[in-house]
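User: Before I run my own analysis I want an independent prediction to cross-check against. Here's the chain; please return only the structure tokens and, at the end, one sentence I can use as a sanity check.
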Amino acid sequence: MELHIAKDPAQLSENVAAWISNYILEVLQTQERFTFVLSGGNTPKQLYSLLAKAPYNMVIPWEKIHFFWGDERDVAFEDERNNARMAFESLLDKVSVNPENIHVMRTDIGPEESAAEYEKILKSYFGKDDTTFDLVLLGMGDDGHTLSLFPGLPIVHEKKAWVKSFFLEAQNMYRITLTAPVVNKAACVLFLTTGANKAITLKSVIEGTFDAEKYPSQLIRPEEGELHWFVDEAAAGAMEI
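Assistant: Structure tokens:
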């Protein structure tokens, strides 16, 4: 695990945009496509906006990138809570991506059907490979969750399925999510975390004993790939560094 600390969220986004751009270009020197899992939530918005502007909108070969999502709320695409909508508005509508390379988690069909369809897509991409995605971008909630892997829920213990749906009572909605097994086969996983409100949880996730039931973010441990935590000083405030 590699820890990267920036002064504030703005500097963090700048650092991550540069890192991702360099990583994409490096990987594409040895293969024809790059598979990228996007994260929802508020933290990546600033990052996506940066990637949509110069120099990244011109330097990155967007036509070679295939986009996926880590999780989705079962709400219509038009709903402001929809993760895909946020990514389209801040990034995908502003760069030269091939539409056929964008794979949203559908919410115009039932959640179980959507999860099954998404797993089928992933198996068509990675079913015969030892690794899955080239890059998975994740966030971490105040409670230590990542993706839709929430503390104390059965989804935390999923070992086989790559994509699952379930009803989240706390939010009164269905969620569709990648699971730890498929993410842990990725070549690189990057957590993006900001804010003093996450400092104690971040310390527990990175420096504490393993307790995935309480802190599901601890489940993300790539088998062969890289793991990077990009955090700001506020989020890192409780850590012993």
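Sanity check: Helices lie at 9-27, 44-51, 56-59, 83-90, 111-126, 180-183, 199-207.
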